[in-house]
Write a structure and sequence with these properties.
The chain has 377 residues and is α/β, with parallel strands linked by helices. It has a single domain, classed as TIM Barrel, CATH 3.20.20.210. The strands form 2 sheets. It has a 7-stranded parallel sheet. A 3-stranded antiparallel sheet has the order 2-3-4. Helix 4 crosses helix 7, helix 9 packs parallel to helix 11 and helix 15 packs across helix 16. The chain is globular and about 60 Å long. 39% of the residues are buried.
Length: 377
């Protein structure tokens, strides 16, 4: 079975006879490990040329050896016709030949992003009214999600070339979690108590935006969507039920209507919310590894899910993947797969968190190869 077939089988009622291996947040891994993944210069990732984009992505995926990949949106016809990347010494510039605009590109920062717009504490200005929220959020009805300006061409090239044997994945952020980017951590948490009507308005707007993103992912050719749900472990079950669950269900319904599957990645401690996590409508549940004072044992997850959803593994990205020896890594993979088989074979071997910057490519490839070597059932 190829990677796509393994993952699709995991989502079937019968489960998969061959366990797929994936890493979460491959974009972070690529950012942190570019020099190990390719001999090409870092700025090639910004080149609008379809052939260039498809080629480096193929090189990266073949080096990693996993069974899925993030399906990208490419450059528009306009960009491909007029934009080029020019290197001058250590610097690289994005040049628009039509307008003459010249922009110096910033190399990716290992283990972080430059210029993130939101601050966790005390953002400079918090939208305080529905009108201010509406002004902050992109209106999905005015945004161009049809992708008929050429932005879908890269995905189609990849799927027609090397991507057909791997599972293509889209990504969205959960509606309540997205409020963090508007209000920061403090504002998000305080407004749940002090301005619940405003939070309700915001998540409704973010849900509409997320559904538009789901539809765009389907147009690109994605087979599944990763739904990131962060910081909602720190709210009460009732707040989760009121401000998050109904909107997650709307999103998963849109995913299903588009012919895709939804993977709900819940960050943090699931204690007190298990019934809610099983009621999102998602087809799969992914959780973090044990850390920060809580324990998430994959055997316990499987017992609770009991075949109702696909379960993704939560192999420890630090203590096992980065720091343990091969014997320990292999033993944990075997243990998790054994648990996954008790979930009626509805299991995908994964990590609980992104690969750390100090974990070499060779180790990630070893993880994938060890997973694929486990005897089928």
């Amino acid at each position: 079975m190829n990677g796509r077939e393994k993952i699709l089988a995991a989502f079937s009622p019968e489960g998969t006879p061959e366990i797929p291996a994936v890493i979460c947040y491959e974009d972070i891994f690529i950012r942190d490990h570019w020099t190990q993944l390719s001999r090409k210069p870092w700025w090639i990732r910004f080149d609008p040329d379809i052939e260039t984009q498809s080629a480096w992505r193929r090189e990266v995926e073949e080096a990693i050896g996993q069974d899925w990949f993030l399906l990208p949106e490419g450059a528009s016809y306009e960009e491909r016709a007029h934009v080029t990347i020019v290197a001058q010494g250590e610097a690289a510039y994005r040049i628009n030949r039509r307008t003459g605009e010249r922009q110096r590109l910033t190399p990716p920062q290992v283990s972080g992003w430059l210029g993130r717009g939101v601050a966790s504490v005390h953002p400079s200005k918090l939208p305080q009214t529905p009108d201010e929220v509406d002004a902050w959020i992109v209106d999905p009805h005015t945004g161009d999600y049809r992708l008929d300006d050429g932005r879908a061409d890269l995905a189609q090239r990849i799927l027609g070339d090397w991507g057909a044997t791997r599972f293509p994945l889209g990504y969205i952020a959960g509606p309540l979690w997205t409020c963090y980017y508007m209000w920061g951590f403090e504002g998000m948490m305080v407004f749940l108590i002090e301005k619940p009507a405003l939070v309700q308005h915001a998540v409704q707007r973010f849900t509409a935006y997320s559904i538009a993103q789901v539809q765009a992912a389907a147009r690109l050719g994605a087979a599944g969507v990763w739904i990131e749900d962060c910081m909602t472990d720190m709210i009460s079950p009732q707040h989760y039920r009121t401000f998050n669950l109904p909107y997650l269900r709307q999103i998963t319904e849109a995913i299903h209507a588009a012919g895709m599957v939804g993977i709900h990645y819940f960050c943090g401690n699931p204690a007190g919310k298990w019934d809610l996590l099983l009621d999102t409508g998602a087809d799969a549940l992914a959780l973090e590894e044990s850390k920060k004072g809580f324990v998430i044992d994959i055997a316990d997850v499987v017992e609770r899910v009991n075949g109702r959803m696909v379960v993704l593994g939560n192999l420890d990205a630090v203590r096992i993947l980065e720091q343990a020896d091969d014997e320990t890594l292999h033993a944990e993979i075997v243990r998790q797969i054994a648990a996954g088989r008790r979930n009626r074979g509805r299991f995908i071997m994964s990590l609980g968190s992104p690969v750390t910057p100090d974990t070499p490519l060779s180790r990630v490839r070893r993880y994938c190869d060890l997973t694929h070597s486990v005897v089928s059932f």
